[in-house]
UniProtKB/TrEMBL annotation:
<keyword id="KW-0028">Amino-acid biosynthesis</keyword>
<keyword id="KW-0067">ATP-binding</keyword>
<dbReference type="InterPro" id="IPR036974">
    <property type="entry name" value="PUA_sf"/>
</dbReference>
<feature type="binding site">
    <location>
        <begin position="230"/>
        <end position="236"/>
    </location>
    <ligand>
        <name>ATP</name>
    </ligand>
</feature>
<comment type="function">
    <text>Catalyzes the transfer of a phosphate group to glutamate to form L-glutamate 5-phosphate.</text>
</comment>
<protein>
    <recommendedName>
        <fullName>Glutamate 5-kinase</fullName>
        <ecNumber>2.7.2.11</ecNumber>
    </recommendedName>
</protein>
<dbReference type="InterPro" id="IPR005715">
    <property type="entry name" value="Glu_5kinase/COase_Synthase"/>
</dbReference>
<dbReference type="InterPro" id="IPR001057">
    <property type="entry name" value="Glu/AcGlu_kinase"/>
</dbReference>
<dbReference type="InterPro" id="IPR041739">
    <property type="entry name" value="G5K_ProB"/>
</dbReference>
<dbReference type="GO" id="GO:0004349">
    <property type="term" value="F:glutamate 5-kinase activity"/>
</dbReference>
<dbReference type="InterPro" id="IPR015947">
    <property type="entry name" value="PUA-like_sf"/>
</dbReference>
<keyword id="KW-0808">Transferase</keyword>
<dbReference type="InterPro" id="IPR011529">
    <property type="entry name" value="Glu_5kinase"/>
</dbReference>
<keyword id="KW-0418">Kinase</keyword>
<dbReference type="InterPro" id="IPR001048">
    <property type="entry name" value="Asp/Glu/Uridylate_kinase"/>
</dbReference>
<comment type="similarity">
    <text>Belongs to the glutamate 5-kinase family.</text>
</comment>
<dbReference type="InterPro" id="IPR036393">
    <property type="entry name" value="AceGlu_kinase-like_sf"/>
</dbReference>
Length: 385
């Protein structure tokens, strides 16, 4: 790197870290791996240390929302589970037992510092649907107004395989977006993003990520070391991408570095916020946090209409359908070469699509009834990739 470029990078990093330190509202996410002992119990010392840091930031006038994982991990020991269960129902049962224990630990530690803990359980749908989205926003705002500390987790009991965050990294990014936070702090068991496997002595810390280009060639692992966390670094990087696109500076470091990170000291990895237009939560979710449940292959005219003109996808432009999806599911929209050009929420079940493909909406309305005049994917539910 040339010295001018180095200087510019250094000042971008300093500005980002200063913005984190002076943030008015901050979302702090802590992962299971940072909250549990190696034998799978809640580590009360870690909870105490974290709460102490958060309480200190509150004293400085910062609004803090905590997104905490650890419910499944905390429920494992009481239920006699030696390792994280694989099936969803057992994970949900463990989360139900563990969430109570987790919140009790936060409540006790916050109360010692004169603060109220407020449990907030959210699902993907709450983030996507306008009414739930507004309700969650209103409640969280009120909690901050009355000086409580929201402790957010995914509502594991009702989340399904299809509509599930699974990790809390991306939920935290959407909460940061929902609450227009100024900074997002992702706390894990690793002190930063590394350019290779962090346990490999040849890997070094990446201290600044200005955009996706800075991640080229970096080996981002999908699993953690201790088998309690989910998603590894992949979901943290995805979370940082969602947050920075929403204009939120994101810092990734270890729970042990929480105080330093919140104070803007030079620890961890800073993902600098982008300055573009603020996308909707639904657009962010479709683009970064979900995979299509099937695909619709578009003819060249439909590719042009969707990708360039940002039009809705009509049945007339579809030549093939794959996968099993229901109305309301996310699907990939591909060109005839198989390149995914957009993702959107589909208005029909997969089984209905073959009878609609290639037909004009007018023909469909006349032959099948007026309800078939609707788009296959409405442009408000679609994001071009
Ligand atoms: N390039 C990388 N840089 C840093 N950590 C990585 C990288 N690739 C994979 N990891 C792993 O990701 C893990 C963190 O993910 P995870 O266990 O899901 O954490 P949490 O429970 O905090 O959400 C780290 O322990 C680390 O081993
Ligand atoms: N809602 C789940 C989160 C699952 C999880 O382990 O997430 P994370 O540790 O953030 O990768 C829980 O509380 O256990």
């Amino acid at each position: 790197m040339h010295s001018a470029e180095l200087e510019q990078t250094g000042s971008a990093e300093a500005a980002g870290r200063a913005a984190v330190a002076s943030a008015r509202r901050v979302v702090v996410k802590v992962g299971s791996s940072s909250l549990t002992t190696p034998d799978g119990r809640i580590d009360s010392g870690r909870i105490r240390d974290l709460v102490e840091v958060l309480a200190a930031r509150r004293t400085l006038g910062q609004e803090v929302i905590l997104v905490s994982s650890g419910a499944v991990a905390a429920g494992m020991t009481p239920l006699g589970m030696a390792r994280r269960p694989r099936d969803l129902a057992s994970q949900q049962a463990a989360a139900s037992v563990g969430q109570g224990l987790l919140l009790a630990a936060y409540t006790a530690e916050l109360a010692e510092r004169g603060l109220n803990a407020a449990q907030v359980l959210l699902t993907v749908e709450d983030m996507m649907r306008r009414v739930q989205h507004r309700n969650a926003q209103r409640t969280l705002r009120r909690l901050l107004d009355i000086g409580a500390v929201p402790v957010v987790n995914e509502n594991d009991t009702v989340a399904t395989h299809e509509l599930r965050f699974g990790d809390n990294d991306r939920l935290a990014a959407l909460v940061a977006h929902l609450m227009r936070a100024d900074a997002l702090i992702l706390l894990s068991d690793v002190d930063a993003l590394y350019d290779g496997n962090p346990s490999d002595p040849g890997s070094s810390v990446v201290s600044l990520v200005r955009g996706p280009g800075d991640l080229d060639g970096i080996d981002i692992g999908s699993s953690g070391r201790r088998g309690v966390g989910t998603g590894g670094m992949v979901t943290k990087v995805a979370s940082a991408r969602i947050a920075t696109e929403a204009g939120v500076h994101t810092m990734l470091t270890s729970a042990a570095n929480a105080r330093a990170a919140l104070a803007g000291e030079r620890v961890g990895t800073l993902f600098a916020a982008g300055g573009g237009r603020r996308p909707s939560a639904r657009q962010l979710w479709l683009a970064h946090a979900t995979a299509g449940r099937g695909s619709l292959v578009l003819d060249p005219g439909a590719v042009e209409a969707v990708a360039r003109e940002k039009a809705s996808l009509l049945p007339a432009g579809v030549v093939r359908v794959t996968g099993e999806f229901s109305a309301g599911d996310p699907v990939d929209l591909c060109d005839e070469q198989g390149v995914v050009i957009a993702r959107g929420l589909v208005n029909y079940d997969a089984a209905e699509v073959p009878d609609l493909m290639g037909r004009s909406t007018r023909w469909l309305a006349r032959e099948l009834g007026p309800s078939y005049e609707r788009e296959l994917v409405h442009r408000d539910d679609l994001v071009v990739l």
